[in-house]
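Okay, is this right?
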Amino acid sequence: MFNPFMLVPCLICLYDILSMIFPLRFSWPLKTLLILLILSGIAKMFLLRMTPSGFSILELPRNLALFLSAMFSMMITAAILLIMKDIVQVFWRLFLHAKFPAHYASLTVLVLAAVSTVYGVYQGTRVPGVIRHDVKIPGLAKSFDGLRVAMIVDIHVGSVNRRPFVESVVEKVNALSPDVILIPGDFVDGHVKDRKFDLEPLADLRAKFGVLAVTGNHEYYYDLQGWLETLKGFGIKFLNNEHATITSGDSQLVIAGSLDPTSGNHDTARALQNAPANVPVILMDHQPKFANGNAKLGASLQLSGHTHGGQIPVVYEITRKLNGGFVRGWYDVDGMKLYVSPGTSQWDGFPMRLFDPSEISLFTLHAE
């Protein structure tokens, strides 16, 4: 059965071949090899399985999955560069009235796309560094001053990101000696039987007030209940439209979580129902686009992921429009602080980052 999702990548692939490969003055055997490499960029897309809430990808050996994902990333990168090349070509012919150097222009695009992809995939698949943030929270009790909150998000364990990656992330997080660890969703791209082994190191996460989480949209593409049971078995407590109160002496701090809208039941008001009055609230909400409403409901600090920071410059602008203007970093939203993490990793269908490093976040809270 034809999958309409495939139409766009097929057209992009055709565009790459016609605009980048055909103008090259290479021998046809070499051109044919390049065409096959470009075609491999959409091979993984044909392995997509549509689900009621989205899509998932069939299991592949890691090296094959990484190669196909890299070629898909190169296909997208080349298309962006080709659009610029073809615009230049139009103006070249209109104003210079000279023959456009199609071979050299296409060769330049090919080289730039290849180099960008190699570097971008390296950046996208490496174990991230730690980024530290000092955050002033209005109304925070003095006894919570200096509280260390570690956050990892968008781990996307799948065919590319596997157990060694998770082990390294857990080791880095535990080395921070956090008081609480927050995970605002997108743990996995795969089914429990395939990916449980890879996520097991999360059971080694250690923090005084525990590990708290919410679901992201990708959890709904697989066996949600199976994953919730598995992750809870690793010692992770889910705050899906719920809150928890941590105490230090007589002081309190609320940590809440909103279900991802993919569930059809995103409800921050319910998450904060019966929360202690006049107590600061740290809210996990996987998608940042609800920040304005969450600020009105009284959240002090919202922590989100989902956007992956845009990953590459052109996609950054598309991501910004799809997420209420929030893509990466700090925002002030009606008095509420919002931090959008670029993610600890990213979906392995497009494992590429340019000027957008992933991170493990550490927030040190201070009374304002």
Observations:
- The CA atoms of residues 19 and 82 lie 7 Å apart.
- The chain has a mean pLDDT of 93.
